[in-house]
């Protein structure tokens, strides 16, 4: 495991130690190592996918990062020597839809003595807030120092949002999936995206959000500034097409998992599920639609007896065809290793495949 992955894994442990864990309730040290390893493997898969889909340096590995909250607010600043670059959520996620009907254009900047961070857009949906942002230097020079030799975020100098997310003035537990990459040939601008995984908060209304950005300096987290903005998930959630699945399967440990529904909108596709009890298994679904498209849905959130699987990336290549009339789904499960170590990914089929009508 490289240094970046190691430090990210340790930060995951900090976040998942909160009262509302995203993978398992109150995990012990051994269980935490297992979940950390699983998450890191999922991170690596997504990083490799982005290497295939994007030109230039790729997004960094993603993780839940718990940092100290600061109190300094910075006003908006426009610097003449810095060319403002647009970086939409569609750009960041590699999707063809620009989400024009659902995104909130923030386009507000904060700065310290060296860097300008611009929060470009925000989109709220069920249990998730996604933001896109850019980073530039005040002097307009390259941002080579923000990247490590592998093309990922430098852990010594990286700039990133904190998981200390505030909604309507209240701090809420969250975890982050995201990363950033160079977005111009001169390497003077970095584009990033962050997905805040949120539980038990109604995002189907307008909410006020506050997010702090930090950078590492000599192994200390230094606050760059905070963004305060509004985002409303009402329309995206209302426009989500829901198809009831309601099928039960028994896992090898005797726990029953019920696949509840398949949902699709312009942002993402999900399969939600519930457990009858605590389990040591992680799920995925292999799906083939009537148009011949094959898509894998992997676990993105699991805890407190429920969770959801999501298409691998947000790109059109990882979506079921919007015009497909049916889809055949097959459930698989893999047991987490008994001790810390690499996931074997020995997924076994659970039950029989089934066909779901989409129209």
List the main descriptive attributes of the protein structure presented here.
five-stranded antiparallel beta sheet; 359 residues; globular; eight-stranded antiparallel beta sheet
Can you describe this structure in just a few lines?
By secondary structure, this protein is mainly β. The chain is 14% helix and 43% strand.
Tally of strands: 18
Q: State the shape.
A: globular
Given helix and strand content, the structural type is mainly beta
Question: Over the alpha carbons, how many angstroms does the gyration radius reach?
Answer: 20 Å
Any low-confidence stretches, pLDDT <50, length ≥5?
A: 1-28, 47-80
Mean pLDDT: 79
Along the chain, the helix and strand elements come as HHHEEEEEEEEEEHEEEEEEEE
Helical content stands at 10-25%
Note the beta-strand portion. 35-45%
How many separate helices?
4
Instruction: Report the biggest beta sheet as strand number plus sense, adding barrel if it closes.
Output: 8 strands, antiparallel
How would you write the strand order of the largest sheet?
A: 11-12-13-16-15-14-17-18
Distance between the termini: 45 Å
Protein model, in words:
There is one protein chain. With 359 residues, this protein is mainly beta. 14% of the residues lie in helices and 43% in strands. It has 4 helices and 18 strands. Strands 11-12-13-16-15-14-17-18 form an 8-stranded antiparallel sheet, with no helix packed on it. It has a 5-stranded antiparallel sheet with strand order 1-2-3-8-7. Helix 1 (3-16) crosses helix 2. The longest helix is centred in the first third of the chain and has 25 residues, at 29-53.
